[in-house]
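Could someone model (R)-mevalonate with this protein?
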Amino acid sequence: MTGVGRGSGKLILCGEHAVVYGHPAIAFAVDRGTSVDVVARPGPTTLDADADDARLLGALHTVVPRDGWAVKVRTDLPIGRGMGSSAALAVGLVRALAAARGESPDDAAVEDAAMPLERAFHGNPSGLDVALSARGGISKYRRGPPRSLEQLPVPGWTVVVLDSGEAGNTADLVAGVAARRPGVDRALERIGALVGDAEAALGDAAALGPVLDENHALLREIGVSTPRIDELVAIAKRAGAHGAKLSGAGGGGVVLALTPSGRGATFLSHLRDLGIEAWECRPWTRT
Ligand code: MEV
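Reply:
Sure, complex below.
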């Protein structure tokens, strides 16, 4: 029995951290992800992964039996950078095992089966990453109850992702925000309200930019940015981005910059001249 599965990475456009407390967030799946191959064979389950993460094997067993499988994982997502690498792994794994067993679970069943692995990595995840990884597209998500997931029209823009080179620990960052409540509740509420503005401006990158800038200022206020992330946001803005913010849990990770249409390549070469690892990303939709 063999099976192959894939989960995509994601970027959060607006609303990270606030989404953990029931506010909405908008996120989109990206054209990078994680592929998983599984082969049934006797003996203890083995893992061949290109990412060196000590938590991986333990987390794997929330989804894969301890015996009977050889698992191979390949990804082009940066690990621990807020791009949903653990959710992409979980979704890829669930789909690969289902394929090997001859099952075809729907997206909701894939999400349910993937959540234990996401919890093993992140403690109290909102479920946003897994939802986007399983479904693709761009969505407004609310953890609930009641949980809601609304697919939005896919905008025409692409974003440039700037990598800080620093990995954040999502579980620690979410716990840090929890410890700063209720002092940060006003900022979390404002982030939730900004998601409505982001949805209204979704098709207009110039109008969306200031919403992202304010979202970043609020993420700083709740204590999840870093000096390097703030520096990358400032560089992106000076280079002409409509808006820029950290995306994901923070503590490092990546900055998402919304660039004027047709300017992505110039913007990228400027960043690379400054020695910044950066690439273009577009929302990924299932065909
Ligand atoms: C993680 O990608 C985003 C957070 O909002 C946590 C979560 O939603 O589970 C920080």
